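Input.
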Amino acid sequence: MQIGPILSTLRHHKLTASLLTLQVAFTCAIVCNVAFMVVNRVRQVSLPSGLAESELSVLKVAGIDQGENPQARHAMDLAVLRAIPGVQTAVAVDSLPLGRDDSTYGTCGSQQAWNHAMAVRSLNGVDGCVNPSVYSGSPGELSALGLRLAAGRDFLPDEYAQAKPGYVAANVPSAIITRSLATKLYPGRDALGQSLYMGGRSPMRIVGVVENLLRPRLREPGVNQYSVLLPSVPGDHAVAYVLRSAPQDRERVLASAVETLTRLDPNRLIPPDGVRTYTQIRHDYFQRDTTMIGLLIASALGLLFVTALGIAGLANFWVQQRTRSIGIRRAIGATRSDILRYFQTENLLIVTAGIVLGVLLAVLLNLLLMTHYELPRLPLWYLPVGALVLWALGQLSVLSPALRAAQVPPVVATRSI
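Output.
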């Protein structure tokens, strides 16, 4: 197929060809960035929490009698909750992954790094120092939540301490950290037995490493699994009870738990939104993300549909406009395949020009989003994938008008003579 005649024809239709090129360019730029945003949000929504999510139910309770002993109340509550039929185990915790109640402490993996951080009054830029999320819970927290130890052991009974009311955690001798945090704090070394320096406390010894434990509030990728478990029993009047049961028993267990605790002490607060399965907690946390994913996908599909309509409409118009010239070409020996390839090649040239411009616009749009919305840099492989999609869309859109043009008989060339 000779390109020269096609380019000559396009030069006679500069305006329409330019408008279609711009439409393809804007579609390429927007769709590449939208696809990147959708993939990022899907990755975030799909992040594993590290918990046995399908088996957990959560009950938030707040006592109003400031004179009572919170730890004694929690122990009594846990005893009756464990007696509910279907409950495998129950623990008291201060927070949960995706629960939004996040407590963090500046943490370093060595005395030297901690001293340096204190000297400069910042953890930023100090190698080996981070701000992990801190979890506290009553004995049995690991097994109740379904956390899997990658190395080391669970806390021993004599390592637990009771946190004072208003404090996130008590001073404890040991800690369990996530695998990603262990890699960050002790690169190339075994984390077990190492000392952990956290928030000015006495150094704690790491006795275990869990595979994964997501933060209560997500941050940028790479630090969402930086978490520390402490053997500190919650000491506030407000606490969250986590019940583990078979997935099909969770709703019944939650209803029984509310009834049991209310009967045990009517003078306490159990807010309706504090009685949920963990599946509901995860759904609520990512509700805005899932809605945004749907809107982005709908926008991208809509834009592609409009672009396909534009390509098909212009091709139809040009086929009608060139019917006589097509008949002449058929009369002088052009085959139906030649006519079909002509329109496909013409579309390929227009779409390719749009893609070249669209790639540049996609990079510029990504830089703009990085500046104003903290979006990560667009990986370059999105650009060839977007180009392939638009090439395929262009060829499919022009196929029907091109096939109709290929059916024009040579006799059409003589009708207007």
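The chain has a mean pLDDT of 89.
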